[in-house]
Design goal:
It is a single chain. The protein has helices at about 1-30, 90-105, 120-135, 150-160, 180-185, 200, 220-225, 250-255, 275-280, 295-305, 310-320, 350-355, 370-380, 390-400, 410, 415-430; strands at about 110-115, 140-145, 165-170, 205-210, 215, 235-240, 265-275, 325-330, 355-360. It is an alpha/beta fold. Among the domains are: about 110-330, Spore Coat Polysaccharide Biosynthesis Protein SpsA, Chain A (Alpha-Beta Complex); about 360-435. The strands form two sheets. A seven-stranded mixed sheet has the order 3-2-1-4-7-6-8, sandwiched between helices. The N and C termini lie far apart (about 60 Å). About 40% of the residues are buried. This is Glucoside xylosyltransferase 1.
């Protein structure tokens, strides 16, 4: 009986300790809410390859953070839970577990956006992130994959953004499978094929929107994120067609490999249900056995590397050619590129509703070949958070766009500002209602 009583007393003590710990964590989390005095939150939640990623942000800065765990308390993470010497141990372990569980049970409360930046793409990437922040409603988590020399610059710039408590970010190194890293690095542009490995690196992220650095959001990220709810039971990703007009299409005229649909797909904007991607077994033309995502990439590269022009985008086209039921196709205004207007307007949806996402591929933000695209880029890059959007963004942009009517894209310049005007109006309406 005494032994039984001791066991019961021990169990009761453990229960009390657990309750007290839970209350303490609740108090800490309340402190870190916007306006709670804990500062803006920059949490790194998704472990990548062992020892591979660095937490970005200002964890542990300021008096409010001294003397207790940093946010998630881990600046470097690996799969063996090795914590740096300046990091407290058990509480941080449980805090990470607690927050991971919260993410799993509240997946719709945060939108995950990934980008890969190499070379001279810092400014372009930051401008893209600015465009995502301006109009989005739900919280955002940016997953920024960048060369090591860009990490500090990203952190310095992002620390100055007025997030209003709704944006976190994590900065990762560029990583490829060690046995084939050299081949992946030289495929198409430097680092471009990193996007193929996001489902394997961000293992704890259920869904993700990947975008190229030369993307600009002209309406809330929430709106493209909502397409996840429109996927049927077989669809795992969404992309837009490479072309609307087959007469100017690349794939249907020049491709030496299989491609999706009539004109292929463009991977500059790619919405992914990564849980489904990791689980799926893909049909292919290499073996009668279906292969998972991590198994199919290298065999595809070996088979087609002499026949592909656009690198990882071509591999995605091959993959969805054999698995067309797995792709949801966006209308063209969700990935509007110079090809949609340089030979005359051929995106009817944009003519009716405006451009939702602008994709300035071929470097058009930085030369004089397509001044309409450059005008939008410069307007968002130069906009200061907090300024009046009508007087500081819309009106100057429209004046610049009117100077571009000597080009084909400039002749339809109103499609570049139509949705942007609506997004500004909707943002002010939400603010007036206190949302």
């Amino acid at each position: 009986m005494r032994r039984l009583a001791r066991v019961a007393l021990l169990c009761l003590g453990c229960a009390v300790c657990s309750l007290l710990y839970g209350l303490s964590q609740l108090a800490l989390s309340l402190e870190q809410e916007p306006g709670g005095g804990g500062g803006r939150e920059r949490q790194a939640r998704e472990p990548a390859t062992p020892g591979a990623w660095r937490q970005a942000g200002s964890a542990g800065r300021g008096a409010a953070g001294s003397g207790r765990c940093k946010n998630l308390s881990v600046s470097f993470w690996n799969s063996y839970w090795m914590l740096p010497s300046d990091v407290c141990g058990m509480n941080c372990f449980w805090e990470a577990a607690f927050r991971y569980d919260y993410m799993k049970t509240h997946p719709s409360e945060k939108m995950h956006l990934a980008v890969v930046a190499c070379g001279e793409r810092l400014e372009e990437t930051v401008t893209m992130l600015r465009s995502a922040i301006i109009f989005s409603i739900k919280p955002l988590h940016f997953h920024i994959f960048a060369e090591d020399q860009l990490h500090e610059s990203f952190k310095d710039i992002l620390e100055e953004f007025p997030y209003e408590g709704k944006v976190n970010y994590t900065i990762y190194p560029i990583t490829f499978p060690s046995e084939s890293a050299a081949e992946w690095k030289k495929l198409f542009k430097p680092c471009a094929s990193q996007r193929l490995f996001l489902p394997l690196i961000l293992k704890n992220v259920d869904s993700l929107l990947y975008v190229d650095t030369d993307i600009l959001f002209l309406r809330p990220v929430d709106d493209i994120w909502s397409f996840l709810g429109k996927f049927n039971s077989t669809q795992i990703a969404a992309m837009a067609p490479e072309h609307e007009e087959p007469r100017i299409g690349w794939y249907n005229r020049f491709a030496r490999h299989p491609y999706y649909g009539v004109t292929g797909i463009n991977s500059g904007v790619m919405l992914m249900n990564m849980t489904r991607i990791r689980r799926k077994y893909f049909k292919n033309d290499m073996t009668p056995v279906r292969l998972q995502w991590g198994e199919i990439l290298m065999p595809l590269l070996k088979k087609y590397k002499l026949n592909i022009t656009w690198g990882d985008q071509d591999l995605l086209n091959i993959m969805f050619f054999h698995n067309p039921e797995s792709l949801y196709v966006f209308p063209c205004q969700w990935n509007y590129r110079p090809d949609h207007c340089i030979y005359g307007s051929n995106c009817k949806a944009a003519e009716e509703e405006g451009i939702f996402i602008l994709h300035g591929n071929r470097g058009v933000y930085h030369d004089d070949k397509q001044p309409t695209f450059r005008a939008v880029y410069e307007a968002i890059k130069n906009y200061s958070f907090g300024d009046d959007l009508v007087h500081s963004l819309l009106q100057p942009l429209e004046r610049e766009l009117q100077k571009t009517t000597h080009t084909y894209c400039g002749r339809v310049y109103k499609v570049f500002i139509k949705q942007l005007t609506k997004s500004v109006r909707d943002l002010y309406a939400r603010r007036s209602k206190g949302r």
